[in-house]
């Protein structure tokens, strides 16, 4: 589940909120991290497809190293010091953003490479070809089984 916060269609900007991955999904933190990255990528791609100009993402500074924001082309804009009070303590907030220009000028390709490998390995033609080959292999296996 993913949420979009501060959605401002009149300003063509939004902020990614929480992204939750089901607790029983995947057997490793690496699989869960991959799912988180892909969910964020799909959300960003969708928002830019709606012609948004800016997407923001905020998080605790302690989560910055493991967050997919940097891996998906977001830029750290700064730290909001003492931004919130959580459990009676001041908490800073790291603010990231990506613009439609960043996305168009290589951000989307970079994100897809991070998620899926080299561009050739995730092109539609390659995926369709792999799907067709897999179907043919299944057909051959079924015929052998009969």
UniProtKB/TrEMBL annotation:
Highest taxon in the source lineage: Eukaryota
InterPro entries named among the record's database cross-references: Acyl_CoA_acyltransferase, Ribosomal_N-acetyltransferase
Gene Ontology molecular-function annotations: protein N-terminal-serine acetyltransferase activity; protein-N-terminal-alanine acetyltransferase activity
Chain positions covered by the region annotation Disordered: 125-146
Name of the featured protein: Uncharacterized protein
